[in-house]
Design a protein that fits this description.
Length: 361
């Protein structure tokens, strides 16, 4: 940067100069008018008292006039300099906001703006810092989502392309088993895309202030969800016990059904051991808790928070045949967050309990 540009960058901006000039005119006008008023009043009073000769009266008037001008000039200069300094200090956060905005426009995430006051300017800086942080988090989530999508779709698409090319070249012959396998792979990709659409919808819903909640009896709702798995439970010879006391909740009905169905599907898919899968409801202080418990493998404590992240699966191989798409629990968490509740898991040696809460209000 040249010396000229460095000097220019250090000079106050036009807004500060204009504000200072306006203040100078206002202060100077007020002081001059006040000084002249005081001068004329003092001269009039001295003349009315009549205690001075004409020559001494003129000398008094001249001396008073000189002192008033000294006072006026001193007050104007001091007041203007003090105003300039205070204004410069006041708008410093605004300059920082402008520089940060320029950095953001270039695609860089600036450092947080220093908050030096608790007034409106300070509040603006606080909100701006929160905005930058949110944008940064959104960008990181977007990059992670793109990376996860790339990873999730690469393997099945590679398999499909490989088999289709081999069929085209005549290297292999099409069989019913092969076509069924390719069809299942295609359905899995389609299902994953549908889950991504659901996740996007709930992401959007979480950012809105409106709601489509209505009063629903939770016992009836859970019973309807459980009935959908009767055939699957009978085929695998798994017992299901439902104990959900009646309670009317103001909830998003389809979303809550999706949570319960997802937890039941996981409990059946990961069933490993003996005993029934249970669905238990309980009224607590300000929330209603629903827990789905079933025999399955132990989930380490460090993994219990991560399983609600998108595309996260416990198995290191990330095999979809074992771990699903890794989106079901993420969707459930989005729906629970939309209701203002909580979701979590408690894991024991041979039993896992997934629970979530729904506020009464």
């Amino acid at each position: 940067m040249s010396i000229r540009n460095q000097i220019k960058s250090r000079l106050p901006k036009g807004f500060l100069w204009r504000l200072s000039a306006l203040n100078f005119l206002v202060v100077a006008s007020a002081i001059v008018v006040s000084g002249l008023a005081i001068y004329n009043t003092a001269c009039f009073l001295m003349d009315a008292m009549g205690g001075l000769e004409e020559q001494r009266q003129e000398q008094f008037n001249a001396t008073l006039f000189n002192y008033l001008w000294i006072f006026i000039i001193t007050a104007i200069v001091t007041g203007s300099l003090l105003h300039f300094y205070m204004t410069k200090k006041l708008i410093k956060p605004i300059r920082s906001l402008i520089e940060s905005t320029k950095q953001l426009k270039k695609g860089n995430y600036p450092d947080p703006v220093e908050v030096t006051s608790q007034d409106e300017v300070g509040e603006l800086a606080v909100q701006f810092n929160a905005l930058i942080q949110q944008l940064h988090m959104n960008d990181q989530n977007r990059q992670k989502l793109v990376s996860d999508l790339s990873h999730e779709f690469r393997t099945p698409l590679t398999n499909l392309n490989g088999y289709l090319q081999s069929l085209e070249r005549g290297d292999i012959e099409g069989t019913q088993k092969l076509y069924k396998s390719l069809y299942q792979e295609s359905r899995r990709l389609t299902g994953m895309m549908e889950q991504l659409e659901q996740l996007k919808e709930w992401d959007f819903a979480n950012s809105q202030t409106y709601t489509k909640n209505r009063e629903v009896d939770i016992t009836t709702l859970v019973g309807q969800c459980a009935a959908m798995f009767n055939l699957q439970l009978d085929e695998k010879n798994i017992a299901l016990s439902v104990n959900v006391p009646s309670c009317t909740l103001l909830i998003h009905e389809e979303g809550t059904q999706q949570i319960i169905s997802n937890l039941l599907e996981n409990a059946i898919h990961y069933y490993n051991g003996e005993g029934a899968i249970t669905v238990h409801g309980e009224r607590q202080k300000s929330v209603y808790q629903i827990a789905v418990c079933g025999p399955s493998g132990f989930i380490p404590e460090q993994e219990q928070e991560k399983i609600f992240e998108r595309f996260y699966r416990l198995d290191t191989s990330r095999s979809s045949d074992i771990g699903g798409s890794g989106l079901g629990l993420a969707i459930a968490k989005e729906i629970v967050d939309r209701h203002g509740g909580e979701i979590g898991v408690t894991s024991e040696k041979n039993k896992n309990t997934f629970w979530f809460t729904l506020p009464f209000a």
